[in-house]
Amino acid sequence: MEEFAHHLRRLLALLPAISLSALVGCRPVAVTAPVLPTPPAVVTVDFDNVNWSVQKSLSRARMLQGDGTIGEIFAAVWDTRSDPTLVVLRNNMATLSGQAFTVDMVDRTGKIVRTGRVDCDASLFPYCLVEIRTDSDVLPAAYRNHWTLGVAFSLPGFRDTRGARFIADSEHDDGKFNDVFVEPIKWGKDYNDFSYGYGNLMEAEHVDFRPAETAIKDWTVGKQGAPEIPTQPTHP
Questions:
Q1: Strand 148-154 to strand 125-133: parallel, antiparallel, or no bridges (unpaired)?
Q2: Quick one: which H or E segment has residue 118?
Q3: Which of 34, 42, 46, 50 counts the highest number of beta carbons within 10 A?
Q4: Could you give the CA distance from residue 59 to residue 218 in angstroms, rounded to a whole number?
């Protein structure tokens, strides 16, 4: 009897939500609701306090707003267009293979004019805005044969004394450049039209890039395979 009681206590320890009386048939099983982890708080962007100035820094954290704590916010001004627009990234999603940022385009009045998403590997960091053009069918039809906005992400080994080279495939690591991986922004519900969360440009035969920020125009390579870039920053 003592041995039976011992095994029963072990069973109850494994099934804490089920009462003893339920196990012996005295009344229906009563199972308590599982305790779920508290979901992360919704990140609210105070657009009045997001940096609207043209960012001239070339450091890896050039887009980071605030102190970089929970709810990281990154921003840059897309100022190579006729109507400059603030682009804000919120790091609010972890995916099975990496991370995803909500992307908001904001006008001078603080109104969100367009919302999308951009994905990348968990080790990468938003570095700058970039425009992409390719005729490859690796992208949905609406994103081909014209310039579309993307984000370039830096690697952990980024060095501020090197220029940046836009790439869509694997890291070259030749010691001359900071390779920054480019991902297109998927606007609205277009996310479902892409083959992958990230790495969509890796299979493209040819991709052209150009900076979407004037501050980094002279500090980046705009076309895959371009031979040289400045060896010293041209902006403070």
A1: antiparallel
A2: strand 112-120
A3: 50
A4: 15
d(CA 77, CA 129): 8
Of 208, 156, 147, 204, the residue nearest 180 (C-alpha): 156
Question: Which residue type does 148 have?
Answer: T
Q: What is the DSSP code (8-state) at residue 202?
A: T
Contact 16, 10 (CB under 8 A): no
Residue 22 reports pLDDT greater than 80: no
Closest CA to 173 of 186, 156, 190, 195: 156
Which pLDDT does position 67 carry in this prediction? 60
Rg (CA), the chain: 25
The pLDDT tens digits of the residues spanning 64-123 come to 887 655 568 899 999 888 888 999 998 777 787 788 999 999 888 888 999 999 999 888
Phi (first) and psi of residue 216, to 5 degrees: -115, 10
Length of the chain: 236
∠ Cα 59 160 98 (to 5°): 65
Say if residues 148 and 133 touch (Cβ distance below 8 Å).
yes
- Contact between 75 and 89 under an 8 Å Cβ cutoff? The reply is yes
